[in-house]
Amino acid sequence: MFNQLKKISIMKIKSILLGMGLAVSLVACGPKDADIQKDINAQISALPGVEVSVVKGVATISGTCNDETVKQNAESIVKGVKGVKSVVNNCEIPAPEPVATAAPVEINADGVLNTSVGEVVKTYSGVTATVKDGVVTLTGNIKREQLPNLIKSVQELKPKKVENKLTIK
Amino acid sequence: MSVKDKYKELTDLAANLGIANLQVREQDNVLYVDGTAKSAEDKEKLWSAYGKIDPDFRSADVVMNIEVAAGATTEYVVKSGDSLSKIGKVHGVSWQTIYEANKDIIKNPDVIQPGWKLKIPTA
């Protein structure tokens, strides 16, 4: 039994050594990724915002490039670095900032308001509403505690204005 | 004093509460305030502030439309005798939170019908 154990452990050691040998020999071909990365970084230091990562000789460009020219430039620079096998260019060109102008206020048509305001006012006994040119006029009477909820609901229906002519009890 | 100036406290509060997509626009002497609040409570604060500046809402110079951010909800069927505050207590949320999440069904928070399927926001 002891002999068998000895055989197994020797075989194990041999395969580990073999594996290590293979690993070393694979990495040994061409410049290492780390070196390629260093070269690239030196070249693109003039392009702020551009980032490059290198895995097995494949360089991937990411980050932001101000415009197409910069993007192409980055690609040519990286392609020219020793050891780079291929380039994937994912540099983003930011969309132009839209000039902020306020959108016009949305006001619902009288027909729409009539229906939606009607639905709300139905649930508040004593309240009547009329709609003209976007202006909702509330008449009748209402309990003070209910007033804010009514005003809130009507204002949220996108009227032009809400005239509160209610008698508050 | 422009309408914007009159309601400065209101719009400042909206900014402090972090109202999303806040838009404050003045058109034909009416101030339009739009945005999305993080909670029903924040929305209440805005309406309180509005009511302080314009008690009884008589001035007709503001149209405020604040939505409340929607989140995960569970369904609840209204039973006879229920009120929003009762339902709120059972589920650990304010009645305003339930009201805001069901504006399409509830037109008046004091008026709810048995059988209505309400969405109760889960905290």
Overview of this protein structure:
The complex is a heterodimer of chains A (169) and B (123). In chain A, the strands form two sheets. In chain A, strands 4, 5, 6 and 7 form a four-stranded mixed β-sheet that branches. The N and C termini of chain A lie far apart (102 Å). Chain A is α/β, with parallel strands linked by helices and 169 residues long. Chain A has helices spanning 2-28, 33-43, 68-79, 110-122, 147-155, and strands at residues 50-55, 58-63, 86-89, 127-132, 135-142, 161-164, 167-168. Chain A is built from five helices and seven strands, in the order ααββαβαββαββ. With 123 residues, chain B is α+β, with helices and mostly antiparallel strands. Chain B has a three-stranded mixed β-sheet. In chain B, strands 4-5 form a two-stranded antiparallel sheet. The longest helix of chain B has 14 residues, at 40-53. The model of chain B has no long low-confidence stretch (mean pLDDT 93). The chains are: A alpha/beta (169), B alpha+beta (123). At the A-B interface, helix 4, helix 5 and strand 6 of A face strand 1 and strand 3 of B.
Can you list the strand order of the major beta sheet of chain B? 1-2-3
- Overall residue-averaged pLDDT value of chain A: 87
- The residue fraction in helices of chain A comes out at 40-55%
Which word captures the global form of chain B?
elongated
Listing every helix as H and every strand as E from the N terminus to the C terminus, the arrangement of chain A reads HHEEHEHEEHEE
What structural category characterises the helix and strand content of chain A? alpha/beta
Compute the number of strand runs of chain B.
5
* Overall helicity of chain B: 25-40%
